[in-house]
Amino acid sequence: MTRILIVLALAILLLPAPPSSKPETVHPGALLVTARPLALSSIDPALRHAGDLSYLGGWELRSNNSGFGGISALLASASGDILGLSDSGILMGFHVGDGQAQRRPFIAPLPVRPQDRHRPWWAWDSESIAHDPASDRYWVGFELQQAICRYSPGFAHVEGCRTWPEIAAWPKTGSIESLARLPDGRFLAIGEMGMTPDGRHEVLLFPGDPADHDTANPIHLRYAPPQGYRPTDAVMLDARHLLVLNRRLTLQELFTATIAIVDLPDRLEPGTLLKARTLARLAPPLLADNFEGMAVTHEKGRPIIWIISDDNHEFFQRTLLLKFGLPG
């Protein structure tokens, strides 16, 4: 009975409702984060592989700042600078590992347009993020508002937002969890619970900036995740490969995750099926939790995959940051 109640509680936490444990007000300032190193396996501390991936490190992250946690989207640098975005519109920057930090740790809410300041704090359910290194601009997907907003370098201000009817058709409790920018400037958005008639997850391919009102309508694609899983984040590995983080909640194992790869065809035409191939599965006795954010960096030409979990600001969950190497 206890286990059933835990599962029900976790299922409720997957909904973008405003739990009382979430901080209502977060002020910009410095952020102190402690990172406790973790073994990949609870029964074999020497284990260094999960599926096809090499385990390079993992940390349990904690902070006394009440705004820390709830991280649903992730960006990272090769030096170990981490930028997390919570599902309450809060940015958290910090550093892990042995590399040299490039910026000071901080916490700050996302900027808001004057016309949006009437919205309650919990309405900023930010679940996905994408970045263009060339322009240093950012795109954020908001699940409850079912909108995509673009931010200027350094998140100085909001440059534009757009609500698409194709996204508005997705359930608000399972909308734009994944947003990936292709190297050529196109964007992919995957619906966590936006389904096609054949039971696949709906994917929108935007021909340009999805926050720009001049961008043409997206092309509809389909995504087939590993069986029983739902997508929670996606990032381009290169021009031909998409990485997708997938989540599952079951009575037997609670939260588990898979890191999967999609080989993109030369042409993405309407109805194209993006089929996931699992690279690694994270389930007990391996580290497992509510993984929602993923980022890719490179070290000496080798792809590095980072994933982070959303603790929902609850005492029985953790913020875990894991780092894996992908074979060349």
Topology:
Blueprint (H helix, E strand, L loop, with lengths): L1 H12 L15 E2 L3 E4 L11 E2 L2 E10 L8 E6 L4 E6 L3 E6 L10 E4 L16 E7 L4 E6 L4 E5 L6 E6 L1 H4 L7 E6 L5 E9 L5 E6 L12 E6 L5 E9 L2 E10 L3 E10 L9 E3 L1 E6 L8 E9 L2 E8 L9 E7 L3
Parallel strand pairs: 16-20
Antiparallel strand pairs: 1-8, 2-4, 3-4, 4-24, 5-6, 6-7, 7-8, 9-10, 10-11, 11-12, 13-14, 14-15, 15-16, 17-18, 18-19, 19-21, 22-23, 23-24
Could you explain how this protein is built, in words?
With 328 residues, the chain is mostly beta strands. It has a single domain, classed as Tachylectin-2, Chain A (5 Propeller), CATH 2.115.10. Helix content is 5%, strand content 47%. The protein has helices at residues 2-13, 165-168; strands at 29-30, 34-37, 49-50, 53-62, 71-76, 81-86, 90-95, 106-109, 126-132, 137-142, 147-151, 158-163, 176-181, 187-195, 201-206, 219-224, 230-238, 241-250, 254-263, 273-275, 277-282, 291-299, 302-309, 319-325. Strands 2, 3, 4, 22, 23 and 24 form a 6-stranded antiparallel sheet that branches. A 5-stranded antiparallel sheet has the order 1-8-7-6-5, with no helix packed on it. β11 and β12 form a beta hairpin. It starts with a helix and ends with a strand.
